[in-house]
Amino acid sequence: MILPLLLLRSISPKLPIHPQKPRARYAFPLMQARGLHGTFYVISDQIRDVSGSSHFMSFAELAVLQDAGNEIGSHGKTHISFIGRSESWLRTECSVSKQALESHGLMVNNFAYPYGETDDFVSSIVLQYYSSARTAYNYPYEISAPYPSVLPAGAGIGDDVDALSRLKIMIDNLAATDKWGIIFFHDVIPRVGSQSDAIRERDFADFLDYVVSKGIQVRTVNEVLTGTSPTPEPTAIPEPIATPQSTEAPESTAKPESTATPAPKPSVFPTGGLHTIVIVGIIFAIAVIAIMLILKKVK
């Protein structure tokens, strides 16, 4: 009944640094509005500062994600499959990606295999650099302690009409267990079209709402593996100023009874509303006319 929400490399969350970016406005604010955090796996060569592409996030934006309580993980240097590669190539992919991210103040402990592909040889190298390495498209996708170093994950993608229904079934299954369920997403965008590795923004929002409604806890991978609690998200709202405490003895909170009729509360209209105003106005007019007649007779 607990779920670490895994979010892959190109999710493009909205960040205050570059709110004008067309693909930087979806996943992050939806999660943040619900108080949820996730693990964002990043391809270091595709970061905007390295690639020059505005379609990807910058180091500064990744720092904003981390400061908001999310985890930054590595998804490799180039996003080339690790299968069949030499040991030196694998070490370069792992070490360069990790160094690039950590040199900008990001804490990187966990990894996601490109395309979710691995074997025993690949994992033996990768796990020398990272605490865990996440695969993809695995069923079952639940884990329990003691946690494995190679993590399974179920896909939370699809643009068909049944995508949200499938996600809800996954959450219902998790709610009936005491295990962690790992679900990953690629792109969260308004219209998916031909992208098979994406999910619509509205479906993602409905999915998050369903997770919250079921009381499912959402954690990052690092929080699960280390048993730590979520980092409180910083807020710009100032703390309320405490009212100074008086040193005098407190007065009794009991209200004395009184036989006096309480004064009426002020209102837009006097008691009786508009009808009272009209009646009082008519009586006042008759009184004025009567006084004028009396004065006329006196003269």
How many angstroms does the end-to-end distance come to? Answer: 97 Å
Estimated structural class = alpha/beta
Q: Tell me the domain tally.
A: 2
The arrangement of helices and strands along the chain is EEHEHHEHEHEEEEHEEEEHEHH
Written account of the structure:
With 299 residues, the protein is an alpha/beta fold. The protein folds into 2 domains: 225 residues, Alpha-Beta Barrel (TIM Barrel), CATH 3.20.20; 29 residues. The protein contains 9 helices and 14 strands. The protein has a 5-stranded parallel beta sheet with strand order 4-3-2-11-9. The C terminus is likely disordered.
Short description:
With 299 residues, this protein is an alpha/beta fold.
Can you tag this structure with a few keywords?
disordered C terminus; 5-stranded parallel sheet; TIM Barrel; 2 domains; alpha/beta; 14 strands; 299 residues
SSE topology:
Elements: E1 2-3, E2 5-7, H1 27-33, E3 38-42, H2 48-51, H3 59-67, E4 71-74, H4 87-102, E5 110-112, H5 120-126, E6 132-134, E7 142-143, E8 150-151, E9 154-155, H6 163-175, E10 180-181, E11 183-185, E12 187-189, E13 198-200, H7 201-213, E14 217-218, H8 221-226, H9 273-298
Helix pairs in contact: 6-7
